[in-house]
Design goal:
8-stranded mixed sheet; elongated; alpha/beta; homodimer; 8-stranded parallel beta barrel
Chain lengths: ~900, ~900
């Protein structure tokens, strides 16, 4: 028994049953298009008869350069079936059946592989078609289309030759476009096109079965075309799937004004609004819509032009959406008033539309809350944070010919600005307040400052890991790279695209999300995430999911509490914003930022420069008063939620002028013989405080041990503020975090001392407040000795920024401007470890610390407050190792909430 | 049946047999002295009869403040036994037996606990004693001694009162010292001493048994005296051992010129020379030797004065040494020509003597090589490296009254210099070339520079973990701290001791090893370790032991190869020295030091500052030529041994002038309007290369990846040198080490490139050389991902200096001058992690790396080349985790060799 290579659309339900209803297995065999057509056939929708050659046949063909045994015989059977269904005969001069040969892989690869229409036409059947349709022009048009498509895709003849022949013929008839060519002209064109074949030593096969065989082979081969391979590499589609081939009886939308073709979405893919959305052209074939010669009409117009057809489409759209439980992207053709469905698939939508549709579908009882959450990725939420162009506006700009170039979508987001061609000019213009798009062949490290002041970056060379791409992603600047159609002429200071020139200063719009670059200014929507009502509903569902007990795998000891999202915020206004965006606590309040405020810095300096105990105390007291207000503000905003306040962390010299500056000042004054005593005093202090590697120097808990009076002042202020908040009827939950601990001994020394201060304050106010003292785990040794540290610390928070620095030995300030970018370019590191947590090294330390920390102090609260806290992949990891919360910048809270829910759903 | 609390010396063999011959158990019960006396009795040596009250009785007494049931009865039995043995009677006015009551704990605690002699004397028996000995003066002398000793130790009466009484009596008789007092005077003194009792409301018990009971209680109590507790804490002796009490029949060395007392060692404890060594006094009791009123004679004189006695002692010394198989420290008394042995124990010797004796005893077949090695600790070897005072010289100085003070022996070694009382003066005098001993109440961080230029440090306050102690140990400066007898008078700029004054500039000699401070200049022996013949023999044995296969536990997979000692050396002369000291390879040759040489630095700078490819190449070529010579020199010296050469490690800015300096130069020139172009160019470059945290910046492998031409030049030079060495008939074994790797990807990129260079060179020379490429494990992540790295690296070397920095987040340059000293002072950290490897954190990383590295590359060579490589405790750890070698500075090689052997012996 030979294998079965061919399934008719009608056989689809049986195959699906054989595969135990496994949709994925069905799609693996039949491809997405074949499955969709089979599914629609089974639903009783009007689908032209057809059959699918399964992907396995493609893989066999690619391996053996030959059809597998039995395939051709089964295709013949399929053709008999089609002939019977359609009452026509393939290759018959009287009553010819025409078919299309369409590729259809498991995953959609739009435009990447081949399709040939109108197979079955030849010098004889073209007359039969003319007679049958009573439309000679149509028949010759179909034939010349076949000749061009077959020549280009099956035989690889140059498109330009067909194009030139068309142009000449049009010129001869004075036609503005193809639609103006009459039957005679098209018949002449057929002759000219055959000439192209002959010129290249080829011949168009008159045998329809030869056409069919060659077309199938071409579709098989197209799986391995360079652009298809490149697409797969970019999108992560495996190379060993192969494509299916669908042989479908042709139906025609270009048989007159009662015919047409169109595309529709069951909901608006841009906004998510419910209702048919799409466009159509009467008297046209599918490719005419794409070619853009005629402007299609919006689908709503069809309700007037062909009300019955419109109603039928609406009904079918509903059926499909109900069936597939997702917004569908449908291709249809109307042949003399009859609707034919040619394709259905889940439609691609903007992030905003995804959010709205998902929420709506839950409310329509179409999908569950879990499904709704699952359909919106953290990346989708992130895209909502970047300015974006509306897909409409971009489509319109494309139709208007404003698409300047396409490149690699290197860093998402929309940017509108004027192009400048070198770093100096870009910096100068940015300084003048102009929105700058930096355009370069490629970028170099010394151009980073210019990149940072640009709204967008455009390069003509390089790929997704080029310097420009890496830096742009790093700093969230929209970028398109490798836009090779653009040439930069530095002498004349212009860019050239397709023979046209645009001078420096030209306005362009750059879409880093899709890789498109447009001429002129497109409106970019600013992020207004907190105003999106549906997003807030969806995120609430995400929170419910993330908070589920017992759902998580909790590798360190069974089910755990849910994964919450907290925020890093120093000021009440940031905390308020974070809370509005759904933060369930403050995971990191950096107190040092409070001291850098212009009104306070002088006191900080006075404290550092103090020569007497009294001076020092006075300055500290003033700072303490400020701090009480700071913390009171936070407690008011975060009423009832935990607030982790980190004690002073940076080295003291950061509060003084820079050493370089002071050396200059002092030297200058000395040479001028006008000694600057203040500068000299400062210089002396700064030199005393100078450290070779301040990152690993006198900061964090080390500072508190050497100068406990600062930490005591801060703790006093925290608890005074908490007591006052309590008196206001609020419920403050302060958690004091001691940074940079490397050994349990450090905590032992300082924590007791500070707890005493806290108790004193609470006693003085006669108030009892729940509180905890804990530590950052941000030094490798702290993670390695977490069991000892947890005997003192009541909570852990992973400071993964510093932990990454020390685990790698990468000074962040230095590495990112020197070797790290090179490492990412060369693929030495796959990800920037400062953005996505390094699981092998840093992650391993986190695992150790969670396990041994909780072993010493069961149930202790552990979270992460490094910048990684907002990164979806890191969040997944945090969930897997059993953290209680992730804390990130307020704006990333929604992304993190979504990521937390996804982590829970994926680990079930 | 009551427990047995008392054992006579004659019962010793039976007890030992009952305990299965377990010497340790015997000593636990009987204490060291009791066991020694029993052992000597069993050997048939003349020991005065006696018995031992076991340590358990002491523990019972301390817990219950009472004797255990049955003890007193057994003591009575013991007294009967003594009376029978001696033919005298305790308390008899006619024929009185006198006894001593001596403490004797398991471990020797010299001078820490109490002993009372002459028990049994009272107003009546004193007359009996006079009659019996026919020596009235002797009898009264013995009585007054008992009164003083009993008063002070049993009743706690003040020594000064007895002293004053003695002084007054001597004044009355015009006596210069006690020996000039006659019987009458001594009898009067007895009366005066009784007056001291009465004055303090006490009475001397006339009942000899009351005397005995009270003496025993006093000895028991002395176990818990503050000084005994402090001694135990310092030396690590457990508190729960208790002391035994030995009741021994008195024999007298002060019965005339045919009597005497002395101390002898079976070998010279200072040099190790074989032969009796010691001193004696005729007509004297033991305490007279200690008191130092009369000068004892060297033991050799006894051969003339009492030849038979001398011969007898010699014979007995031999018996004891053969028996105990170690040099013995023996106390003896000669009573009217008869020798009595009062104590024997293993003698304390200088490190030098230990080495000689151990080697000699092996050659005398007294002990095995393993025992010889075990008897000399790595610390002993280390002491041989420091200048030392000869114990003779110190004893002499003590006898001459030049001992100024005793303090805590905070940092070993001998220092001779002039005292200066503040940091400024110390620095100034040191700058003038004077040898300075800094004398301060305590030290502060800002005094560190002065400490570093001092030969020795002396403080009057603080203990072993004070700032002065910590810093001194850190930098290997001899120090005595907490010498509280010394007062510093800053106004008059003198120090005061016992009422005498010594001005600034006074010469003193300070022994940090023992804590003694002497007036004047003692000769200090410089270290000349390589000239000590016996040491070299002993270390060869140590190497044999360390190299034994299958002996080591090898926690990471069974028996491993031996633990070798290699050296860190950059220059051929250092390597030669290291090889002479026994290094089996070079574990770290730092190539950067080669570039800092004045003749080469200009080329290094030219390379860094090069603006053209050609300029850069030229400079590199010159450096390459130098390097070939460098490496050739190393290969010649290390013929046949592995040489690990580390590629350039430090950041490039280290080869340029400092930023501060350049800013000053440039600013000055600008203000003067005489622009300094060279400085400006340098400044620009230095600013470009400036890093916030250079420790974690562009250095090591990162440099090689960004500027591979430097690494290629070095590898080319290494292999050119190796090929030339081969041509010279030598056997070079180059191993190229790539530093600062954090990810396997870095090695993948650079190693292949460099191996290619190596092969090119070898091909050009037509020579084949065994080589390896490997990496330092010095970044925490490298340890955490060692399994991945070992797939590329062929060997590992732990760079524990950097690894410690990053694991703790302690910048060494900064930490040691700021918070680290404070941490050690306050006991937050027990050890300086830059000296002794931190096992909990850094050590844990080493374990992981060894295990996972060897899992990926079985049998790969792994060593350590940080400064910890010379630290005995770290070496023990390195052995336990299965390292192949430790590499340290050449001078520490002997210490490490000994430590390696000890590690092997201890882990058997």
């Amino acid at each position: 028994m030979t294998a079965k290579w061919v399934y008719t659309f009608e056989e689809y339900p049986r195959l699906k049953e054989q595969l135990g209803g496994d949709d994925d297995a069905v799609r693996t065999l039949l491809g997405g298009k074949g499955a969709g057509l089979g599914e629609m056939t089974a639903l009783g929708l009007p689908v032209p008869p057809g059959f699918t050659v399964i992907t396995k046949a493609c893989l066999y063909y690619l391996a053996h350069e030959d059809f597998p045994p039995g395939l051709w015989e089964q295709v013949m059977e399929g053709m008999r079936y089609l002939e019977a269904k359609m009452g026509r005969k393939y290759g018959s001069p009287e009553n010819p059946l025409l078919v299309s040969c369409r590729s259809g892989a498991k995953f959609s690869m739009p435009g990447m592989m081949d399709t040939i229409l109108n197979l079955g036409l030849n010098d004889e059947t073209v007359h039969g078609l003319a007679r049958m349709t009573d439309n000679e022009r149509f028949a010759w048009d179909a034939y010349r289309r076949l000749l061009e498509m077959f020549g280009e895709t099956v035989l690889g003849l140059p498109e330009s030759d067909f194009h030139r022949a068309l142009q000449e013929e049009m010129a001869l008839w004075g036609a503005q476009d193809e639609t103006q060519l009459n039957a005679e002209a098209l018949q002449r064109l057929v002759r000219r096109f055959k000439g192209v074949y002959i010129f290249h030593g080829q011949e168009f096969p008159q045998d329809p079965y030869e056409q069919l065989r060659m077309a199938m082979e071409a579709v098989f081969r197209s799986w391995n075309s360079p652009r298809a391979r490149a697409y797969r590499e970019r999108t992560g589609i495996p190379d060993d799937l192969g494509t299916a081939v669908n042989i479908v009886a042709m139906v025609f939308g270009n048989l007159g004004e009662d015919s047409g073709t169109g595309v529709l979405f069951t909901r608006n893919p841009s906004t998510g609004e419910k209702g048919l959305w799409g466009e159509y052209l009467l008297n046209a074939q599918g490719e005419d819509v794409v070619a853009g010669i005629r402007t299609p009409s919006p689908i709503s117009r069809l309700a007037e032009e062909m009300p019955q057809v419109y109603e039928q489409l609406k009904r079918m759209a509903e059926i499909l959406e109900r069936h597939f439980r997702s917004m569908q992207d449908i291709e249809f053709t109307i042949e003399r008033g009859k609707v034919w469905m040619l394709q259905t698939r889940t439609g691609k939508a903007t992030p905003q539309a995804k959010v709205k549709m998902s929420v709506d579908m839950v409310q329509e009882s179409l999908i569950s809350k879990e499904e709704a959450v699952q359909r919106v990725s953290p990346d989708d939420v992130e895209l909502l944070l970047h300015p974006q162009f509306n897909p409409h506006d971009m489509a319109k700009a494309r139709h208007e010919g404003k698409l300047l170039a396409r490149g690699v979508n290197a860093s998402p987001g929309a940017a509108v600005g004027r192009i400048y061609l070198d770093a100096e000019k870009a910096k100068a213009k940015a300084a003048e307040g102009e929105p700058v798009i930096l355009v370069r062949p490629f970028t170099k490290p010394e151009e980073v400052p210019a990149m940072l002041v640009s709204k967008g970056i455009l390069t003509t060379e390089g790929g997704a890991t080029s310097h420009a791409a890496v830096v742009a992603r790093q700093f969230g600047i929209p970028a398109v790279v490798g836009a090779s159609e653009i040439k930069i002429d530095m002498e004349r200071r212009v860019i050239q695209v397709n023979g046209r020139e645009y001078p420096e200063g030209t306005w362009i719009s750059l879409d880093g999300t899709s890789g498109q670059v447009f001429l002129g200014k497109l409106p970019a929507q600013p992020p207004a995430i907190e105003t999106l009502e549906e997003l807030s509903i969806l995120l609430d569902w995400a929170d419910e999911i993330a908070a589920r007990e017992g759902v998580r795998s909790g590798e360190n000891g069974g089910p755990t509490r849910g994964l919450e999202v907290w925020a890093n915020a120093d000021l009440p206004k940031d905390a308020a914003f974070a809370r509005k965006l759904g933060a369930k606590g403050i995971g990191l309040c950096r107190t040092e930022h409070m001291f850098f405020e212009p009104s306070r810095l002088p006191y900080m300096r006075r404290m550092i420069m103090a020569t007497t105990e009294e001076e020092r105390r006075e300055a500290l007291a003033t700072l303490g008063n400020y701090q009480v207000e700071d913390f009171l503000g936070l407690f008011r905003v975060m009423d009832g939620l935990p607030v982790i306040i980190r004690l002073l962390d940076p080295p003291l010299h950061e509060f003084l002028p820079s050493l370089w500056e002071l050396i200059e000042r002092v030297t200058e004054a000395r040479v001028r013989e006008e000694p600057d005593e203040e500068a000299e005093r400062l210089l002396e202090k700064v030199k005393e405080l100078h450290e070779a590697n301040p990152m690993m120097g006198l900061r964090g808990v080390r500072l508190s041990i050497l100068y406990p009076e600062i930490a005591e002042m801060q703790v006093r202020a925290i608890f005074e503020a908490a007591c006052r908040a309590k008196e206001e009827g609020l419920n403050p939950i302060p958690k004091v975090m001691i940074p940079l601990v490397a050994d349990a001994g450090e905590l032992e020394v300082i924590q007791e001392q500070l707890v005493r201060v806290a108790k004193e304050v609470m006693e003085a106010y006669g108030v009892d407040i729940p509180y905890e003292f804990g530590t950052m785990i941000e030094v490798p040794r702290a993670a390695l000795t977490a069991g000892q540290i947890a005997r003192v610390a009541e909570f852990f928070s992973f400071g993964t920024n510093d932990l990454t620095q020390m685990t790698f030995g990468f000074s962040r300030d230095d590495a990112e401007k020197t070797f790290l970018v090179r490492y990412l370019e060369r693929g030495i590191l796959k990800d920037n470890p400062f953005q996505t947590l390094d699981l092998d090294g840093v992650g391993r330390l986190l695992r150790v610390a969670v396990k041994e920390g909780r072993a010493a102090r069961p149930g202790m609260s552990i979270g992460i407050c490094g910048e990684h806290g907002g990164d979806p992949r890191t969040i997944r990891f945090c969930h897997d190792i059993g953290l209680d919360y992730v804390s990130c910048s307020p704006l990333r809270v929604p992304v993190a909430r979504m990521a937390a829910a996804h982590a829970v759903l994926e680990s079930v």
